[in-house]
Amino acid sequence: MSEHRSAAVMFADIAAATELRHSVGDRQADAILDPLLKAMTEIVIRNGGDVLKSDGDDVLAIFDRPRTFVDDAANAAVECQLAARAVGRKLYTGLGAGVIEFREVLGRPDVSGMPVNMAARLHKLVPDLAGYIFLSAETVAHLRPEIRERARPYGVRPIKGMGAVDVHTLDWDEAVTIVPTRFALPATSQTTMIVALGLTYAGQMLRLETQSPAFMAGRDRNNELRLHDDEQRVSSRHLKIVFRNGAWILQDTSRNGTWVRFNNNSNQIGLLGDELKLVANGRMCLGRPFADDSEGRFTVHFELIKK
């Protein structure tokens, strides 16, 4: 027997748990991961939810309190991220909300429906990039205003079995906020003529002229700028820079994204398959947010050379 009712779903997966088990063995890994899983379970319950499944390194939680279930799931997701960070771990997290089918399978409670699939697809939307809470614009619309204002557009993404989905992130840590391009661009003078773009990386200084061919950066040796990354979060052909219609355009072509910060704006702009006009001097971080590159090994500085 089954029933349908409105609820929210949270998928949360501890990043690099499999690698940890291979490195230190199951017993020691359990000693590290189990306290975090216990804390996540307590967080879910405290926010009015139930943990439906917990399988070694992940949690599937359901929230169905009337009127507050979406807020409950969002609050739990934020608290779980903070709990993970406190012990040096990161989470992949996805949220979904809507009408869910509750049923029993082989005597155990189970759920199904579009919100469950949405949360499952979103929690690892970007491979190898943990530390974010992904949710759809439809889910964002059901958050109360003070939580909704922390949602940031991430862009329309093709989601398997669901078509194009307007994806948002929920800001839980200002240090890793992804800001939509159209809201983050600083002002630039319309009378200034840009004649070149200067790039600085690991002591290298490169100058791109407006008539230069497309400039590629990534791990591949054939790129104009090659970056070495043992974690392979930098893609082989990670990004392209071209001069088009009087402006330098950065095009992300990677699997894990590129982050940009202009010098006169503290916000980060997260790109994944997107492009961005470089309208001021700044820096870009390949394959990870700036907070994950404290040594600057994957950060390229850029400077607009004007006439």
Automatic annotation (TrEMBL):
InterPro entries, alphabetized: A/G_cyclase, Adenylyl/Guanylyl_Cyclase_3/4, FHA_dom, Nucleotide_cyclase, SMAD_FHA_dom_sf
Annotated ranges, domain Guanylate cyclase: 8-123
Limits of the FHA domain: 215-265
Any one Gene Ontology BP term: cyclic nucleotide biosynthetic process
Superkingdom, taxonomy of origin: Bacteria
Pfam families per record: FHA
GO molecular function, one term: adenylate cyclase activity
Classification via PANTHER family: ADENYLATE CYCLASE, TERMINAL-DIFFERENTIATION SPECIFIC, ADENYLATE CYCLASE, TERMINAL-DIFFERENTIATION SPECIFIC-RELATED
Name this protein carries in UniProt: Class 3 adenylate cyclase
Organism listed in the record: Panacagrimonas perspica
